[in-house]
Amino acid sequence: MSTTAADAARVPGPASPGPSWRERLTRIAPILVLAPSLAASFIYVFVFTIWTLYISLSNSSLLPSYGFVGLDNYASLWSNRRWNIAYSNLFLFSAFYIVGAMAIGLLLAILIDQKVRGEAAWRTIFLYPLAVSFIVTGTVWSWLYNPVDGIQMLVRSLGWTNFNFALASDRNTAIYAIIITGIWQSSGFAMALFLAGLRSVDPDLVKAAQIDGASTFRTYRRVILPVIAPIFLAVAVVQIQFAIKTFDLVAALTRGGPGISTTFPAIYVYDLMFQRGQIGEGAAAAIMMLAALAVVLVPYSFFVVWRHRRESHHG
Amino acid sequence: MADAALARVHDREASAAFRRHFLSRVVIYGLLSIFAIIYLVPLLVVVFNSFREQPEIAQNGLIAFPRSFSFHAWADAWSTYCIGGTCEGMRRNFLNSLWMAIPATILSTLLGAMNGYVLSKWRFKGSEVLFTLMLLGVFMPGQIALMPWAFLLGKLGLTNSTYGLILIHVVQGISFTTLFCRNYYVSIPDDLIKAARIDGAGFWRIFRKIILPLSPPILIVTVIWQFTGIWNEYLFGVVFTSGREQPITAALVALTASGTNVRAYDVMSAAVLIGALPPLLVYFLGGKYFVRGLTQGAIK
To answer: What is the ipTM score, two decimals?
Structure first.
């Protein structure tokens, strides 16, 4: 951190012998401003990660301790049935959640893009779930899924007395309750990104296609969607991050149940660390979450950098 | 005669086109309306139930038009309802969240603005690398930081306190706010800064006189993003605080989990709305900026 602000040095100073304390202060001001945030970020990103990594290799149980046990925690984590359920849930959830939210988001964006009246109102309706917390969403949906008071009761009271809808209370289907709620919460997000993309498409391109006699559907499929392809990837990457970090939604909606059927990695980390006093194994699970994020984000960021380079080369 | 025939053909084509157009409008508005209902029903259910009386909810179910009306659930949820052992409603937790979210938002936004200013207008050797380093914080899962935070907060004597959560949210938020501000300030022409420097303006003067006056759009985006994010956060709240010190998200989970025999949907609905109201208010007042933050946060 001994670098001085090169830019500041270039500014011609007044012709006084040696810089005054004021000038010196100005010169190092940028560094002084940045230093606390840098230190905090460095600690947060690197020290905390290495710390947790170390705990994951130690024999910590109720309290952190630093006896080195190698990969024991990882071995016991991966042999645990609950962890296996947690990560297979993560795959299932990610797949349905991403595809579902993108499909609905894209549909809504295209519908809104048809010069509809009251565009702002529609957008406000589809996006508001994003403003409230997963806790609020999860809580409310858990009531709707509740067979005694929610949707099932409503439909039965309308006359279909044999109607069954107990999605969240059946261990085989509870994961779908979470998926539906997740899609409900964030398809508006996909819509916002897609809509921004649709609006950025060159209108001449669309006009040319229409003059050629292409139908609206064909215009979208052949002309517009290929142009906004990068947005699909961006939406997917953001949503995978959501999925890997999913904690609040499950905590509020099913609390991991019935039984352990809707355990997610983030839920399991919390459980190991703070309910069962298995800090070492909990840290191992947290490291696995970080690894999952890295698997997605590292290739993606390389791809983004590569695309930027290519675009700036081809001007 | 020929003219009339032509006009008739034209007419038929025009009316077919009109019918097609009309039909497609019906489909478009029909689909939008169906989705709008799906999106609005959960909100309406909670709003209705917060004004209904519990016996009526128990009788007619959660999803029904109100046939009773009272404010009593709101009053209960705000100040008298019991969670665990204490009967103080959500007021205290609401205020906790407010006293957590406001300072953390202001601090992280200020830091982000100054960092963004340095990283865009006072670049030095290696500053891009440092920027990338700070960005990594955006992607960190909170779970990685749980144990280190637990240790640090313990050392600092900040466990079970709003100050501890403020610290966490500021540190966690810096990467986002820096990213937002830096990307915005990059678009301010460097010539403007150079001219000011030639006129003898220094680091702070340029920040105050040039950067800040141009900043309101990005500061609004950042403040909205930070405030809603911090207000809605749950993990750190539930891990590092308990009981009266909990922020509202954690208190809501405790409230709805507390296993009383009759589920008091009226009071719980009001409590849920109390927890959802501040971010919703921010969203409805600053929707445009909210969306802008969303798209910027996503595309980076």
So the answer is: 0.87
